[in-house]
Design brief:
- By secondary structure, this protein is α+β, with helices and mostly antiparallel strands.
- The chain has two domains: about 280 residues, no CATH class; about 70 residues, no CATH class.
- The protein is about 25% helix and about 30% strand.
- It is built from seven helices and 17 strands.
- Strands 4, 5, 6, 7, 8, 9, 10, 11 and 14 form a nine-stranded antiparallel β-sheet that branches.
- α1 crosses α3.
- The protein is elongated, with a radius of gyration of 41 Å.
- About 25% of the residues are buried.
């Protein structure tokens, strides 16, 4: 039987789905919630309360020096370890003589960080709690704005021994709704913890050009976190963490828990670690509204009108100066390009395209009155055509042209 994020409820054997692991990684690398489509329209808001897991992370500092192991130059930059605490074993909280029956259990995760510029180990202890989430979601044009407050309740422990099932310390051995819920919380936290686990070390393996050869290696995925920076220069810390490291860790688990809404809508698994419920939603609708703005209308049409008037004025000026008008017909092109000198320049390029030489393409032409041409005796008409700049003169309306 499969219930939520684990199988075999009688044995309470945790089984974290691959989809949950991928979801935790998406939240970890993006640094934000994986959103889901609005269930109430493009502009609406609702508030929902639900139970989920939450971290309480506390920072501590302790004097230390870089750890040297197999050879000099070894320094631990990042390392995680489990916290261990003694907890009673239910349902046998004590023996007949009053002695408590206890076992080692996980007390959350410890994360230690070292920096090159100080002699302190920065440690953060994150404990897992059952909590109540109050989430308000506001959609504006289908873009969500999510605000969440969390109230912590009891701490969640888990067994670290193979003989006793993981969540046997949560409740009685018989399955119950509380056991199922807390086991699901633990499974979500384990998906987040997987991306935090591991270590990163700094090695100085010798000299290159009288400079240390620094290498960073490790097994942790923390360098993929959106709030962690990396640097390859020896003058900087190879890894930089956010100043509010503990708050960011708490936010990762919160965002992963909230993002499960997206997982539930897109999951192919039959497991359902959440119960759907109804809640009141406020839906905002905006009727179509048209506003007439005379100033905007005249700005647009006034600019087009002014540009049109300028073009008409330029055309009238040229028409008055030359006394000529034309069009874009083939006949217009043919008569204006009749020039014996221009024909000689274009000799051999009648087929166009590849037959037009580069020199011909770069030749600048001018339209006007052809000069230095032979005219019949007594002929006062002038020939107008395209020609080289020095072969034509400006057109004048006082002359008669062919």
């Amino acid at each position: 039987m499969e219930v939520g994020f684990y199988v075999n409820p009688l044995g309470i054997q945790l089984n974290i789905p691959n989809e949950l692991e991928k979801l935790a990684m998406r939240v970890f690398t993006s640094g934000d919630i994986v959103y889901w489509p609005s269930p109430c329209g493009s502009n609406c808001s609702y508030t929902v309360d639900f139970d989920g897991p939450a971290y309480r992370c506390v920072d501590t500092e302790m004097p230390t020096t870089p750890t040297e192991l197999d050879h000099p130059g070894f320094m631990s930059l990042y390392n995680t370890s489990l916290g261990i605490v003694q907890v009673p074993v239910p349902p046998y909280d004590s023996l007949e003589n009053g002695t408590n029956v206890t076992q080692d259990a996980s007390d959350g995760i410890w994360i230690q960080r070292n920096f090159l510029d100080d002699n302190f180990t920065h440690a953060t202890h994150c404990k897992l709690y059952a909590a109540t989430y109050t989430t308000t979601v506001n959609y504006t044009d289908n873009i969500p704005d999510i605000n969440t407050t969390v109230v912590l309740h009891q701490q969640i422990f888990s067994s670290i021994t193979e003989e006793i099932p993981d969540v046997s310390v949560l409740d009685h051995m018989e399955p119950s709704n509380t056991t199922y819920a807390l086991a699901n919380f633990y499974a979500i936290e384990q998906a987040v913890e997987q991306v935090l686990q591991g270590s990163i070390v700094l090695l100085d393996d010798g000299l290159v050009d009288d400079s240390p050869l620094i290498q960073v290696s490790g097994t942790s995925l923390v360098t993929l976190w959106s709030f962690v920076g990396t640097s390859n220069t020896s003058s900087d810390d190879p890894i930089t963490f956010p100043p509010d490291f503990s708050q960011r860790l708490e936010q990762v688990l919160m965002n992963t828990t909230i993002s499960i809404t997206n997982l539930l809508q897109n999951s192919s698994s039959g497991a359902s670690p959440a119960t759907y419920t109804s809640t009141n939603a406020t839906i905002l609708t905006y009727p179509s509204l048209f506003v007439y703005s005379p100033g905007t209308l005249w700005t647009i049409y006034g600019a087009a009108l002014a540009l049109g008037c300028i073009c008409v004025a330029i055309g009238l000026y040229l028409l008055f100066k030359t006394g000529l008008s034309g069009d874009m017909s083939f006949s217009q092109i043919m008569v204006t390009t009749r020039n014996a000198r221009l024909d000689r320049l274009c000799y051999g390029a009648a087929l166009g395209h590849d037959f037009i030489s580069k020199e011909l393409r770069l030749t600048r032409l001018k339209y006007g009155e052809a000069i230095d041409m032979e005219y019949p005796e007594g002929d006062v008409k002038r020939h107008v055509c395209f020609g080289l700049d020095k072969e034509v003169a400006p057109i004048s309306k006082d002359k008669i042209y062919v």
